[in-house]
């Protein structure tokens, strides 16, 4: 998202319903275009914000719907303001740091008001805070929801005990283009790798975020559901195959694997099935192994082509996800001839490309 888009979607106070406008001049300043003026960090502004936070502390034992509504809208405005500031300025810039401080203070106030976790989510009902629906007619908040969707995020949970450094890392990742975050493995993986434990993203399953279809016009979610059914049936746990058998399930899987692009999309959505599991790629590898085992045992004549198709799908994964999937698959392949054959089916030029990507990324990080 370009800076111009950020300014347009965030700083238009006419989007805020009158009854939800915060009486605090400090938060109004954070909401309007003054964020981009040099006087944004004046002493009077800082004093106003501190005064508001003192008021919130005094009122913390008097929770009521109106106060919570104000806090929720203020928090959203603070989140958008911090996201925008981090997109416009380096994280160390005073304006980015001031926006971060403001967001942190409102987050702490909401933690106290709710006496628990704070969640930001986006779905069919629009943006929600702790399942409280935010007015979908407010353009800025609607576009924040789109930002979450573009980053494949269903919800963000901010736990009590969250440190300022954790929030800063989160906003830094939000300052990156959505596609770059996805290519690096997604927000959940990036937060885990950087030691952020009190901000937990729940990522969208691919069927929830995809409008893509196969060549016949069938939505991904339908194809993926059928694939899941076949894999469960092949393992003896499915119940939706009617009078079919393992061979018929294998035939469906073979047909599914004939399109490596769809298979790659299917594998990518598996990473979100275990957000709480530190091994984010475990389900990806498990899906490869289940599909391979089903074809190998029930339709051996199709195995050679299917393993090449799965290797192609593996290569089409985003670089970080591909690297981590290969790492786990290679470890497990010592006890699984299926995984070993899938990995071995990678073409020499694909292996060279993977090694180049890995070495380039390692060099960039070290440099």
From the structure above, extract its key features.
five-stranded antiparallel sheet, alpha+beta, 18 helices, 2 domains, elongated
In short:
By secondary structure, the chain is α+β, with helices and mostly antiparallel strands. Strands 3-2-1-4-5 form a five-stranded antiparallel beta sheet. It has helices at residues 3-10, 25-31, 43-58, 65-88, 94-114, 139-150, 164-174, 178-183, 187-193, 206-209, 220-234, 246-257, 260-270, 282-298, 303-316, 319-332, 337-344, 348-366, and strands spanning 118-123, 126-129, 132-133, 153-158, 199-203.
Spans of 5+ residues with little confidence (pLDDT < 50)? 1-52, 205-218, 236-244
Q: What summary fits the major beta sheet? A: 5 strands, antiparallel
The shape is elongated
Task: Kindly state the number of beta strands.
Answer: 5
Counted up, domains total 2
Strand-residue proportion? 5-15%
Question: How far apart are the first and last residues' alpha carbons, in Å?
Answer: 27 Å
Report mean pLDDT, rounded to a whole number: 70
Number of helices: 18
Helix content: 55-70%
| Radius of gyration using CA atoms only | 24 Å
H/E element order: HHHHHEEEHEHHHEHHHHHHHHH
- What is the topology, as strand order, of the major beta sheet? 3-2-1-4-5
Oligomeric state of the chains present here: single chain
């Amino acid at each position: 998202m370009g800076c111009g888009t950020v300014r347009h979607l965030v700083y238009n106070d006419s989007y805020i319903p009158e009854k939800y406008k915060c009486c605090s001049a400090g938060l109004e300043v954070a909401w309007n275009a003054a964020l981009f003026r040099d006087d944004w960090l004046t002493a009077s502004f800082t004093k106003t914000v501190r005064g508001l936070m003192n008021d919130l502390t005094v009122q913390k034992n008097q929770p009521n719907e109106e106060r919570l509504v104000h806090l929720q809208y203020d928090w959203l405005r603070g989140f958008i303001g911090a996201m925008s500031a981090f997109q416009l300025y380096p994280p160390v810039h005073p304006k980015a740091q001031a926006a971060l401080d403001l967001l942190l203070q409102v987050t702490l106030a909401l933690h106290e008001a709710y006496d628990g976790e704070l969640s930001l989510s986006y779905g069919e009902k629009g943006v929600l805070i702790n399942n409280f629906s935010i007015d979908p007619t407010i353009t800025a908040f609607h576009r924040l929801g789109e930002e979450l969707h573009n980053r494949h995020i269903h919800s963000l949970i901010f736990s009590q005990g969250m440190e300022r450094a954790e929030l800063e890392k989160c906003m830094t990742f939000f300052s990156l283009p959505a596609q770059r975050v996805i290519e690096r493995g997604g927000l959940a993986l990036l937060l885990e790798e950087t030691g952020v434990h009190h901000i937990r993203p729940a990522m969208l399953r691919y069927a929830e975020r995809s409008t893509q279809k196969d060549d016949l016009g069938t939505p991904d979610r339908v194809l993926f559901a059928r694939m899941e059914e076949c894999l469960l049936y092949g393992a003896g746990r499915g119940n939706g195959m009617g009078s079919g058998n393992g061979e018929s399930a294998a035939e469906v899987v073979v047909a599914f694997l004939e399109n490596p692009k769809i298979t790659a999309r299917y594998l990518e959505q598996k990473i979100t099935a275990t957000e709480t599991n530190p091994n984010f790629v475990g389900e990806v590898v498990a899906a490869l192994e289940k599909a391979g085992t089903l074809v190998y045992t029930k339709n051996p004549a199709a195995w050679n082509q299917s393993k090449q198709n799965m290797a192609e799908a593996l290569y089409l994964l985003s670089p970080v996800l591909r690297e981590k999937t290969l790492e786990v698959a290679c470890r497990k392949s010592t006890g699984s001839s299926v995984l070993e054959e899938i990995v071995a089916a990678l073409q020499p030029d694909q292996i060279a490309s993977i090694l180049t990507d890995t070495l380039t990324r390692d060099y960039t990080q070290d440099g």
